[in-house]
From TrEMBL:
Residues 147-188 form the Zinc finger CGNR domain. It comes from the Bacteria. PANTHER family: BLL6575 PROTEIN (PTHR35525:SF3). This is CGNR zinc finger domain-containing protein.
């Protein structure tokens, strides 16, 4: 499976949720390595060969908890099961507890400073980055009030609506918005032919 990770939802945790659509994208350690690097959890040249299949399970678990917390916040009608919500919140807080990877400035051969990590990041540190981003999102009243569920057919994505007037309808105008416009055009064409 070839895919390009999406980073247009407005928050890192929401971009992790986007790895489920249109199908599961975190299927191998290589896919997770690509997402971690593309998400800038680590600098570009950071070796991530130590990522194993159990990392996939941990990132998917975190993603499930994020979904359980964010989808109700984006919906005006859905009310979460209080026990499941509280369990997800407790697990999120546990995952946010470890220290994230420590960055440092390193001089390259050409004398330019670049970002590197003090140590190879472990799973808990990288999960903490995403979990902390979720905590930031859920505790920011402005961002929380701007959470929207994509209006596209069968699109489960949630995004932060930063558009002017807060009237954005789709996670991506190029993807879901284009599908909606094409469907609307086909419906009008069918009506005019009938």
């Amino acid at each position: 499976m070839s895919y390009t990770p999406r980073f247009d939802c407005g928050h890192l945790c929401l971009d992790l949720l986007a790895t489920t659509h249109p199908e599961e994208q975190l299927t191998t350690p290589a896919h997770l390595r690509r997402w971690i690097t593309a998400a800038a959890l680590v600098p570009e040249a950071t070796p991530l060969d130590h990522i194993t299949p159990d990392w996939l399970t941990a990132f998917r678990e975190l993603r499930g908890h994020i979904a359980g917390l964010v989808h109700p916040a984006a919906s005006l009608t859905t009310r979460p099961d209080p026990d499941a919500y509280d369990a997800s919140l407790a697990r999120l807080n546990d995952l946010a507890r470890p220290a994230p990877p420590a960055p440092r400035a390193v001089r390259t051969d050409t004398g330019v400073l670049t970002r590197a990590l003090a140590h190879t990041p472990d799973r808990a540190a990288l999960l903490a980055v995403v979990a902390r981003d979720t905590v930031e999102l859920l505790t920011d009243p402005v961002a929380c009030a701007s959470l929207r569920q994509c209006a596209g057919d069968n699109c489960p994505l949630v995004y932060v609506d930063t558009s002017r007037g807060r009237r954005r309808r789709w996670c991506s105008s190029e993807i879901c918005g284009n599908r909606e416009r094409v469907a609307r055009h086909r419906r009008r064409a069918a009506v005019s032919r009938a």
